[in-house]
Amino acid sequence: MEAEFEELLQERFLLATERICTLDAKNDIAAPFGDYFYKVSEFLATVLRTGADYKIFDEPNETWWLRYSFEELKEANKLLYADVLKDAYNTSYANPEYAVACLGEEYGALMAAIYASLRSVIGDVFSNKMEFVTAKLELFIEIYNMFEEEVPKYQEVKDTFYWFMSDYSDTIFAHNIVKAIVPEESFVRKVLAECEIDSEDMRYIFRFGYYVSDSVIATAKFINSLPEEKIDLIAETYTQGYKRGFEICNRDLSIKKTVQIRYDAGFERIIKRSAKIFADDMGLDATYAVSAKFNDQFVYDHRFDIALYLDKAFYERRMSVVRAVYQDIKDAAAVYAGPAVMEVFGETPFEPANKKECLKLSKKQNELYLKYVSKQREIMNEFVPDDETSFTIIAFPIPEIGDKFEEIFEEVIKINTLDVDVYREVQQAIIDALDKSAYVKVLGTNGNRTDLTVSLVDLKNPDKETKFENCLADVNIPLGEVFTSPKLKGTDGLLHVSEVYLRDLKYIDFQVEFRDGCVVDYNCANFDTEEANKNYIKENVLNNHDTLPMGEFAVGTNTVAYSVAKKYDIVYKMPILIVEKMGPHFALGDTCYSHSEDVPMYNPDGKEVIARENDFSLLRDTEPDKAYFNCHTDVTIPYHEIGEIALYAENGEKTVLIKDGRFVLPGTELLNEALED
Asked: How many helices (H) and strands (E) does the chain have?
């Protein structure tokens, strides 16, 4: 039966390939659509020619990249992404703005979304997924055929795309779940096993199929040039943080067999070393997820393309697939330990253009989308319980950060490997003071308008309980914060930051107002109208929720990181992972203990952290659909914008923690040394 399927698939693939490569769209399709089909078919033909030249389907396990020069591979890679890079994107049919201008308001956004979806065929070819390639070629041909006689009705084209996305939930969508959990299904794992990482011969970097930018090449060249002991230090810090995450949560790592390594292209040498440590030290095999950016605006423009096919039937189909997939791989899911993430930073921060031509979710779709995200997380948690897994996350700069990249990289290694013992004691002094407080008052300065009161949970047994977690270098590297889940009632006021980057997006004059711990108003100054600014925050910070609770309040103590950021003028290029340690921060969304509230958590001093839930997560057993928001976005106020952080006891007694950007609480003096530097 399998042989028959493979034979039929091969026949379908060859027929589709021949059809794509012989289309005469300019003559067969009436204007203005002829140019669209010509350009998209040219893209598909380019991908197919690349796959044929490399003989990927004929010799999938051969090291074909060794038959070509570095420059040949680079040129071929660039061709695959040519029309969605930088200025070329302005006249690409993947750009909704251009597509609407050329094809009209009715069809433009739809045809742009279809083309954007078809572009994923690059990864399918390089990972030897002939079934997925064939399906996408056949989708294009079907739509092309609809336009041959006359322009079809919009709904007919939309329905064709709808049924493609629905029907292939069982294969393409399902595979994305499987490859994250099952090592044997991880394409990147196979490639890394085949590749020899070499600073002199970096042709391997083109084997993956992702866009290889000059930055990725420069990153790989630098990483590959580092001495072995430096690679070992980075890999050990990264992997041991993951291991400590299980230890501090008292979770059994020995019963786990798989870790998912998430990293950015160019870091392959460190990743291979880390994978070996995971295997040798923890008995964990790895799956992989690689990030390689080519155009942030492209991604932003297509963030709501799901609006074309999201309805109740699609939702139900997808959720049934999610459950069926996890049921099929339940044994593998049971031994999945969680993700280990290595992020990068240093790029020029992305400031998106808000295009009216982009697809949007209707109010009804938005409600369904939130349910979609929540239900998928709920099903995953059945098979991969959060209270049985852990994670770690660490970040390093890339060459785009500036001329002093190599210096900054060394500084970041130091930041990521600060002395845990020193910070444990300093942070404990802060926690001891906070444990005696009923609420905290945060005031801004130097143009920062923050005036915020954060209410804290009550301690019933101060000798055995604590309100704040003493966060050291484990799941969240680097070290440097104490954090809590605030009490929502009584948490009121304004949070403001003059400039901040959240999820790689820039916000100017960002402000959020809280009442009883929940967002009641928000704004920024990115766009010309208040409506555009509010929509920007609602879509990208509130995740389209009408409101979010304050899920976390923390005080960052990593003044070394802040000092480095100021020294090299990269404060606003630092990732939130480090920025959150550079001042007080406040998370919008779920708490840090989401889905793990019932698992006891203890600080190094033996006290249990009891602030693990809030009024929403308390509903997890009775009304689970209202308990979680499935997002958590940290907003940090840098030290130079802090006028005062004061702690207030129940009787009104005031203790000042930070004054004019400097720590003044006894026991924290050490933290000011880096600030003075």
From this structure: 24, 19
Q: Give CA angle at 168 (165, 169), nearest 5°.
A: 85
Please report which helix (H) or strand (E) contains residue 290, including its range: strand 285-291
Q: What pTM was computed for the model?
A: 0.92
Q: Is 530 exposed, middle or buried (0-12, 13-18, 19+ CB in 10 A)?
A: exposed
Q: Hey, what long-range contacts does 373-377 have (CB within 8 A, 24 or more apart)?
A: 373/543, 373/630, 374/625, 374/628, 374/630, 375/315, 375/319, 375/322, 376/318, 376/319, 376/322, 377/628, 377/630
Exposure letters 81-113 (e unless 16+ CB within 10 A, then b): bebbeeeebeebbbbbbbbbebbeeebbbbbbb
Question: Which residues, listed in sequence order, are joined to residue 194 by a DSSP beta bridge?
Answer: none
**pLDDT tens digit sequence for 602-660:** 999 999 999 999 999 999 989 988 999 999 999 999 999 999 999 999 999 999 999 99
Per-10-residue mean pLDDT of the chain, 677 residues long, equals 82 94 81 93 96 85 86 97 95 98 96 98 95 96 92 96 92 94 94 84 94 96 95 96 90 96 97 97 97 95 96 96 97 97 91 93 94 93 93 95 96 93 94 97 97 97 96 86 96 95 90 97 95 94 95 96 93 88 94 90 93 94 90 93 96 96 95 87
What is the distance between the alpha carbons of residues 279 and 344, in angstroms, rounded to a whole number? 24
| Distance in Å from the first CA to the final CA of the chain | 71
Render the burial of 501-510: b for 16+ CB within 10 Å, e for the rest: bbebbbbebb
